[in-house]
Amino acid sequence: MNTFKITVWNEARHEKTNPKVHAIYPNGIHETIAGFLSREPNVEVRTATLDEPDHGLTQNTLDATEVLVWWGHIAHGEVKDEIVERVKKRVLEGMGLIVLHSGHYSKIFKALMGTTCSLKWREANDKERLWNILPSHPITKGIGEYFEIPSEEMYGEPFGIPTPDELLFISWFSGGEVFRSGATWLRGNGRVFYFRPGHETYPSYHQPEVQRVITNAVHWARQTVRIPDAVPNSPALEQLPPDERAAERSTIGYQ
Question: What is the pLDDT of residues 152-175, one digit of tens each?
């Protein structure tokens, strides 16, 4: 079986400046996610962060990546536009993309959605109950009717996204709000999944159900084809009758 290649990207800023975040994710959110994904058989996981050259997303790295996992928050604006275009091109070619939590407002997610991707929020120690509304889907495999996260940041509707191809989870928060917290889209030849949990000051990525959803998601989103963007002049497969118009155009200078 071919090795499944995943890249986990994180801006990696909160972990360096906020002691509370550092205590939960001492090696960074990206290393926690990479750690549980690495337990899957035949998987090769690398990490990349904002402050690396090319944000760790060189063309060679993306060429070797079948699924990219993205976490960002306070530094969306620091992501270079040319890197966003590089990632977008790979998604359209076939690379999978998993966008987590505040990555909803990342340049790459907004570029692929074509909408504001805005929402309501509140950081007030809400309980989050995620309802599994499509239990037959590969991403929800092993998840029951619902699961709960004891403490999380609230996200509320309206969520400025295009209508999902598939809606997998709806969250309810103890403050009363609901939110479309797990959704998929096909963009070009690539699969995109957005998953809401994961505020940096809560240990959500240590919770088994959250890990299971993300693990399922990378398998679902794995690249199956790579079709580069091109506009080739395509020869006919069958014999065509003579084109009298072509001969006429040639006599008056048309090419």
Answer: 999 999 999 999 999 999 999 999
Question: Domain limits of the chain?
Answer: 4-115+180-229
- Give the angle subtended at the CA of 169 by the CAs of 116 and 122, to the nearest 5°: 55
Rounded-to-integer distance, Cα 83 and Cα 79, Å: 7
Residue with tokens 């963009």: 187
Distance, in Å, from the CA atom of 235 to the CA atom of 222, rounded to the nearest integer, reads 32
Please, are residues 169 and 130 in contact by the beta-carbon 8 Å criterion?
yes
Tell me the pLDDT of the chain averaged across its residues. 95
Cα 159 off chain centre by:
16
Assigned CATH topology for domain 4-115+180-229? Rossmann fold (3.40.50)
Cα–Cα dist 184/192, whole Å: 6
Which tens digits make up the pLDDT trace of 178-199? 999 999 999 999 999 999 999 9
Q: Are strands 4-10 and 67-71 parallel, antiparallel or unpaired?
A: parallel
Global model pTM greater than 0.90: yes
